[in-house]
What does this fold into?
Amino acid sequence: MDHSGHGMTMDLPPFTLGRGMEFGGDPVFLVGCLLALVLYGWAVARLRRRGDAWPVGRTVAWVIGVLTVALVMCTKLNDYGMVMFSVHMVQHMVISMLSPILLLLGAPVTLALRALPAAGRGRKGPRELLVAFLHSRYVRIISHPAFTIPLFIASLYALYFSPLFDFLMESRVGHIAMMVHFLAVGLAFFWPIMGVDPGPHRPGYVMRMLELFAGMPFHAFFGIALMMGTEPMVDTYLHPPASLGIDALSDQSAAGGIAWAFSEIPSVVVLIALVYQWYRSEERQSQRADRAADRNGDQDLADYNAYLASLHARGR
It folds into this structure.
C-alpha cells in the first residue's frame, strides 16, 4: 500500500534506530549532498593549488553539516518520517536548526569569493554576480531580523497548524519543497547571527545573541503545544500504519518533546561559536594595537602622559 502517492510502503516494520539508519530516502537530496561536497572540495583544492590556506575546521564543519542533511533525508528516516510524526520532527529539527549552523560555520560564501576567478575589468563572471547578489536589496531584506525571525516562527505555526502541511505531504514534490524550505529558513535565520560569511547585516555580538533568543522560545512553545494536545493535530499522521504498533496521539506527544528539547541544542552551539568569535575579535584588535604601538614607539601612551603633565603644570 502506498502512502499519499509517494510510492513508499506503509507496511513498515516497527521503528528502530538501526532500521532508520538504513540507506534509502530521497534521491534529490542525495544528489544535492554529493554536489555540495564536490563543489566545496573543488574550491578548497583550488585555493591550495595556488598556495592559499583554508581552515581545516571550516571544511570539517561543512562536511558534517552536509552529512547531517544526508542522515535525515537519504536514509530510511525519510520513509518513516512520512508515517511517524516523531521521526518527521527529528528530520525537521536537524535540517532547519542543526544543519544550517554547521554549513554556515563552513563559510561557503567566503570560500566561493576566494576560489572563483575574477572576470576582468568591465566583465561579469560568477564571482561578480555573487558579489552583486550579496549587495542586492533582496539579500538586505531576507537577511534582516525583521524578516528572518517572523519567517522562522511562521515556518512552525503557519505550516503545522494549517491545511498546508497536509497538502504538501500528499505529493513527493511537496515533501521535497517543504524540506528545502526548512533548510533555507534555517540558513536565512542563522546567517546574520553566525556572522562568518560577508553579509549586509552584521550586528554586534550582543545583538546576535538577542536575535538568537528571540526565535528559540517559539520552538519550545510549539513543542509544548504538541505535547499538551488532547487529539491529533495533523491529519497526515492521524492513522499510522498498524505495522508500526504506535498510537497517533502518543507519537504526536513524542514529536512535541523532540521539538521542545531540540531548541536547546542550536542555542548552545551558536553561543559557543559566538563567544569564540568574540574572543578572537578582541584578540585581533589587541594584536593590532600592539603592532601599532611597536611601530610608533608607543606614541599614544607618550602623548597621553604629556597631556597629563600639561594638566598638572596648568594646575600649579
Remarks:
- The chain is about 70% helix and 0% strand.
- Residues 25 and 74 are 4 Å apart (CA to CA).
- The mean pLDDT is 84.
